[in-house]
C-alpha cells in the first residue's frame, strides 16, 4: 500500500502541468542568465581590449607587456564578478535562500580580512603599482634603503637586485615612496680641480677640447663645460655636465674623468693635490723653510 501511494504521488507530480510549466520557465531563465552573463563578459572584455590597443599605440614598445597585464587583470575581475552574480541568480531559481549564504560569506570575508590585514594591504598596493604604472620590470628604483633593478612585480611582493648582486624581496605594503631612475635621461656631473697658478681660460679650452673628443653611444649629446663652479682652498673647480641615457651616468663620469686627466697632463696644467710645508728653526733663532 505504501509503495502504491508513493507511485500515485509520483504519477500525479509528473502529470502536473503547473510543475512542468515552472520547471520550463526556470530552465529558460537559467539559460537566459548564462547567455546574458556570457554576453556581458564578451562586451566588457572587447571594450577593455580596444582601450588597451589605443594605449599601446601611444606608448613605448617596452611598456606594451605591462599594458597587456593590466588589461588581462581588469578582464579577469569583470569575468569573476559577472559569473559570481550569475551563480547567485541561478541558485535563486532553485529556491535557495541567498540571505544566510551572503551573510555567512560576509562573516568569513571579515574574519579573513582581520586575520590577514598585511596580506590584503600587500595585494592592494601591488594592484595600484601595476595600474598606476609606477615602475616596471627592468627599471632601476629605490624604495627606502633598497636600490636595484626590478626583477619581478607580484601582487604580494616586489623583487629588486642590487648592482652588487644582492636580491631584496620587499612586501608591496612596505613600498611607501619610490624613486624611479629609468624614466628620464640622467646627468653626469664632473668637477675638475685646477691650481690657482694656472690660466683658467686655457684650462677651460683644454677641457672643452678633451670632452668633445669623447664618443659614447650612451651619451645623448656632447658634454658641456659650464665654467668655474667654485673656488676652493687650493683649487679652482670647473664643472662639466653630460646628458646620457638612464643609469649610465656612472660609466660616462669615469670615462670623462680619465680623458680630461690625460689632456691636462699632456698640456702641463697642474691638478692641485695636498702639500705640506715645514719650517725648521736653526740654532740662532732663524727660520729655514722646506717642503
TrEMBL record:
It is a multi-pass membrane protein. Residues 189-271 form the Mechanosensitive ion channel MscS C-terminal domain. This is Mechanosensitive ion channel family protein. The chain crosses the membrane at residues 23-49, 70-92, 98-120. May play a role in resistance to osmotic downshock. Residues 193-220 form a coiled coil. Residues 119-182 form the Mechanosensitive ion channel MscS domain. InterPro entries: LSM_dom_sf, MS_channel_1st, MS_channel_C, MscS_beta-dom_sf, MscS_channel_2nd, MscS_channel_C_sf, MscS_channel_TM-2, YbiO_bact. Pfam families: MS_channel_1st (PF21088), MS_channel_2nd (PF00924), MS_channel_3rd (PF21082). Belongs to the MscS (TC 1.A.23) family. It comes from Paenibacillus sabuli. Residues 76-117 form the Mechanosensitive ion channel transmembrane helices 2/3 domain.
Amino acid at each position: 500500500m505504501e509503495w502504491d501511494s508513493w507511485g500515485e504521488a509520483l504519477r500525479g507530480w509528473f502529470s502536473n502541468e503547473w510543475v512542468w510549466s515552472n520547471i520550463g520557465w526556470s530552465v529558460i531563465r537559467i539559460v537566459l542568465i548564462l547567455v546574458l552573463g556570457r554576453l556581458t563578459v564578451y562586451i566588457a572584455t572587447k571594450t577593455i581590449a580596444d582601450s588597451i590597443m589605443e594605449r599601446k599605440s601611444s606608448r613605448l614598445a617596452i611598456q606594451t607587456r605591462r599594458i597587456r597585464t593590466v588589461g588581462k587583470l581588469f578582464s579577469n575581475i569583470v569575468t569573476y564578478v559577472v559569473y559570481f552574480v550569475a551563480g547567485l541568480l541561478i541558485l535563486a531559481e532553485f529556491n535557495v535562500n541567498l540571505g544566510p549564504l551572503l551573510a555567512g560569506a560576509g562573516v568569513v570575508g571579515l574574519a579573513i580580512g582581520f586575520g590577514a590585514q598585511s596580506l590584503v594591504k600587500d595585494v592592494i598596493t601591488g594592484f595600484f603599482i601595476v595600474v598606476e604604472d609606477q615602475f616596471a620590470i627592468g627599471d632601476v628604483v629605490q624604495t627606502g634603503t633598497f636600490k636595484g633593478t626590478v626583477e619581478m612585480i607580484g601582487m604580494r611582493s616586489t623583487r629588486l637586485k642590487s648592482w652588487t648582486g644582492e636580491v631584496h624581496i620587499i612586501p608591496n605594503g612596505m613600498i611607501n615612496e619610490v624613486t624611479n631612475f629609468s624614466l628620464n635621461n640622467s646627468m653626469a656631473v664632473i668637477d675638475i680641480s685646477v691650481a690657482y697658478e694656472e690660466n683658467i681660460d686655457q684650462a677651460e679650452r683644454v677641457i672643452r677640447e678633451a670632452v668633445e673628443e669623447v664618443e659614447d653611444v650612451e651619451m645623448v649629446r656632447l658634454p658641456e663645460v659650464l665654467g668655474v663652479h667654485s673656488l676652493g682652498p687650493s683649487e679652482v673647480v670647473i664643472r662639466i655636465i653630460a646628458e646620457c641615457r638612464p643609469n649610465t651616468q656612472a660609466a660616462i663620469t669615469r670615462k670623462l674623468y680619465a680623458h680630461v686627466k690625460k689632456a691636462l697632463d699632456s698640456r702641463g696644467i697642474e691638478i692641485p693635490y695636498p702639500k705640506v710645508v715645514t719650517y725648521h728653526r736653526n740654532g740662532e733663532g732663524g727660520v729655514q723653510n722646506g717642503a
